[in-house]
């Protein structure tokens, strides 16, 4: 069985990777080779429930931010955004990626039963690669998308920091060509975004699309929109302060300055340990102009 799977993976089309040696093309999208077994087991064995809430994104499009916001919105009766660490708001002492499991990473170490406990989960998989149970269940999907040129710049910085030391450095120019040719992790970018966009046009009750840029410009409006979409709207009383408190707790300024995100570490899919600060860089609209 494992031999068949390995043979299947090694026969997939291959291109040089950004972080590790090779990307493999599976069902039309490129993935780091080490993620493919997890993706296969997710597709086969994930059991989606109607109350699952799935955050989807192309990498570097605002996942960390949305994880913090969705965690805060869905848990607001348990934890107030103004609770200090001592009073137990997990975002004060946990990186948002520890609060919301990423399915293809969880699956990498729980391949036999890729079903984490929390109902709030995320994935970078393209829509057409999602487990069938996710597509057919009544679960809601929130997708965040970002200006691709900023995604490219952010992805390149991330790859440079994580790139295997056995490989030659990845120049920006090489990354640019790879991205434009669709050869990037979970890419092609446009196919990824358009699948979610087109499905949202057909099933707007199932998929909400947010833009990173609009969230930056109108955070309060978008946090209310998120809460309405997931069926957990803010009450009139909550609208006086609670929404702003959540926006402020999940802001780049606040999260990036928390001790856990400045000096904390986490294990990464390939078994290495990475710093949480890698998820916080500049958070600017239009940084691509500097490149
Ligand atoms: P991931 O796909 O690895 O989870 P993701 O969180 O989607 O990464 O993207 C990281 C980007 O979001 C970084 O952008 P930059 O490289 O252009 O700076 C990061 O700085 C930005 N980011 C992280 N947290 C926030 C936040 N709370 N608000 C706004 N942007 C954020």
Automatic annotation (TrEMBL):
SUPFAM superfamilies named among the record's database cross-references: P-loop containing nucleoside triphosphate hydrolases
Superkingdom of the organism of origin: Eukaryota
Domain Sulfotransferase, residue spans: 50-291
GO molecular function, one term: sulfotransferase activity
UniProt keyword annotations, A-Z: Transferase
Signal peptide positions on this chain: none
Enzyme Commission numbers on file: 2.8.2.-
InterPro entries: P-loop_NTPase, Sulfotransferase_dom
Record-linked Gene3D superfamilies: P-loop containing nucleotide triphosphate hydrolases
Family: Belongs to the sulfotransferase 1 family.
Name the record gives this protein: Sulfotransferase
Organism name: Kalanchoe fedtschenkoi (Lavender scallops)
